[in-house]
Amino acid sequence: MLARKSIIPEEFALPALASRATRKPVFRDRVNKARFIAKSGACNLAHKNIREQGRFLQDVFTTLVDLKWRFTIVIFTMTFLCSWLLFAMIWWLVAFGHGDLDQNRAPGVEQCVTNVKSFTSAFLFSIEVQVTIGFGGRMITEQCPIAITVLIMQNIAGLIINAVMLGCIFMKTAQSHRRAETLIFSRQACIAVRNSRLCFMIRVGDLRKSMIINAAVRLQVVRKTTTPEGEVIPIHQIDIQSESAVASNSIFLLAPLIICHVIDKDSPLYDLSAMELQCSDLEVIVILEGVVETTGITTQARTSYVTEEIQWGHRFVSIVTEEEGVYSVDYSKFGNTVKVPTPLCSARELDEKPSILIQTMQKSELSHQNSLRKRNSMRRNNSMRKSNSMQRNNLSLAVPKVQFFTPEGGQNVAVT
């Protein structure tokens, strides 16, 4: 018995098609990893196994400022309560040692502190001394030099506690990163051709009218590298220059600006094409520093861009317009981008073969002209269809004339 032949010819079978199909180069998928800097600017770094914890106590003020608000409030309250209770105990011991608490003392003996008869009254007197309320019901006398010494000690201790605690609260309220909340970055970064060179671009802006003085932008590429000696550097920071940093050291952040980095031979992005960029494991960190105009405090805003957040062949749309003699900024389009013709090759290949850019521009121009021709032809066809339909409607609405003939050859009568 003969084997049944397949209905599909052998040259069109799946194995044959698979063998003849062109194989594209397969790139290794990028492993999802934690980013070093979050989009909000927070550093994604955990400190573990710190043995010398006492170093934090050597800088108590900075430790208090870095604490969370709930811990700061608890420490603020407990510091004052403990100091009041401590000196209340001292005043109670002074009164007890002098015999002021004795109900059977001689009537001519004067008290060290008047009207201190219990620990509660000593606690009230401690609060009055430290916060300088002075209700007038309790006061010290010149009979006890030790009471005067305790009064001086409590005043000095109260001034120190007030200075530290109020300074801590003020510094937490006026921290520099609070001003950085109104410094914004675009959610996406772009790579496109500008002035015939491939450029990495981001957009920064300031939402407040008070400016940032001496604002400077720094760009860094962070990635894992291996040296020729075999040493693995997990966080290798490479500084890259921007156009603003080449001309001067600061930018005038009056309106949102596009920070541009020219991908040249000194750039770590020089050998990366569009496909290789998506498969690479790097992170671009952007740091904006400046002095707050109103407070004079130095502030810093940070963000980062991983490869999934870098759009190849896009550029930012313009958001600054002139309306009635005033420049207006539309922040609703702050992160909007538009697609532009950009070669998919690396900057090195573009420098070695400048004709790639010319060919890309020509193809883009041809495609643009073809799209315009298609649109015009579609518009013409639609207009012709509309005109034909209108003519048909007019013909259908027209009433034909009907002629009646008399049987004896009389005159014709036309009726419409």
UniProtKB/TrEMBL annotation:
GO terms for molecular function: ATP-activated inward rectifier potassium channel activity. The keyword Flavoprotein does not apply. Residues 379-392 have a biased composition (Low complexity). GO terms for biological process: nervous system development; potassium ion import across plasma membrane; regulation of monoatomic ion transmembrane transport. Pfam families: IRK, IRK_C. The keyword Ribonucleoprotein does not apply. It is found in: Membrane. It catalyses: K(+)(in) = K(+)(out). Residues 37-175 form the Potassium channel inwardly rectifying transmembrane domain. GO terms for cellular component: monoatomic ion channel complex; plasma membrane. The chain crosses the membrane at residues 71-94, 146-170. Residues 366-392 are annotated as: Disordered. Gene3D superfamilies: 1.10.287.70, G protein-activated inward rectifier potassium channel 1. InterPro entries: Ig_E-set, IRK_C, K_chnl_inward-rec_Kir, K_chnl_inward-rec_Kir6.1, K_chnl_inward-rec_Kir_cyto, Kir_TM. The record marks N162 as: Role in the control of polyamine-mediated channel gating and in the blocking by intracellular magnesium. Its main location: membrane. Residues 183-353 form the Inward rectifier potassium channel C-terminal domain. It is a multi-pass membrane protein. It comes from the Eukaryota. Keywords: Ion channel, Ion transport, Membrane, Phosphoprotein, Potassium, Potassium transport, Transmembrane, Transmembrane helix, Transport, Voltage-gated channel. Belongs to the inward rectifier-type potassium channel (TC 1.A.2.1) family. This is ATP-sensitive inward rectifier potassium channel 8. The lineage of its organism: Eukaryota, Metazoa, Chordata, Craniata, Vertebrata.
